[in-house]
Amino acid sequence: MTHTLLDNPNFTGIRRRTPDGRHVVAVSLRSYMSVPEIRAALAELLGDQAGEIDFAVLHAGGEATADAVSDTTLLTGNFHAMHAPGSVVETELAERITLMMTEDAVVSMSDSIGDLGGDSLMCLELSEALISMWGVEIDPVEIFRMNSLKELADDIEARR
């Protein structure tokens, strides 16, 4: 069973709860929001029911319909899933990145720098932080090209 999300000034959406307790949500943006900002807004809307949130952002022409949160669509893997940090490096990296975001951002290890709304300045700042935190030098362009914060944390671990 699908449910329409309460009206939000930044997006419209539809959600359903999967048998394993996750919330699958499709949102059609009305204004720019980064993935962590969307995740924070969804957590606030869903409250205690949030559980694990997997969501897809529907871009130009995409509609928030029941098909957007169907099992078939979920199997395509085009959802932003919430993954908590698992190691010390992942935790410290997530904390550092959270300091660079808006205060209501919810960062996941599956986010890429692009998902975070990051740009060359953010990558440069993060590159400098990696040197001071772990003595690891990673070019800002490499940081931007990584698929996830988990991949970045793994690279940091390998270079230590």
Q: Could you characterize the architecture of this molecule?
A:
Helices cover 39% and strands 16% of the residues. The protein has helices at residues 35-46, 71-75, 88-100, 120-134, 140-145, 149-159, and strands at residues 2-4, 11-17, 23-29, 53-58, 80-81. The protein has a 5-stranded mixed β-sheet, covered by helices on one side. α3 packs across α6. It is elongated.
* Number of distinct beta strands: 5
Runs in which pLDDT lies below 50 for 5 or more consecutive residues are none
How large is the share of residues in beta strands? 15-25%
Radius of gyration: 16 Å
Give the integer mean of the pLDDT values.
88
Helix and strand sequence: EEEHEHEHHHH
Distance between the termini: 48 Å
- Report on the biggest sheet: 5 strands, mixed
Secondary structure class reads alpha+beta
**What's the multimeric state?**
single chain
Overall helicity = 25-40%
Arrangement of strands in the largest sheet: 1-2-3-4-5
Q: Please report the number of helical segments.
A: 6
Shape: elongated
What's this model, at a glance?
The chain has 6 helices and 5 strands.
Question: Mind sketching the topology for me?
Answer:
Layout: E1 2-4, E2 11-17, E3 23-29, H1 35-46, E4 53-58, H2 71-75, E5 80-81, H3 88-100, H4 120-134, H5 140-145, H6 149-159
Parallel strand pairs: 3-4
Antiparallel strand pairs: 1-2, 2-3, 4-5
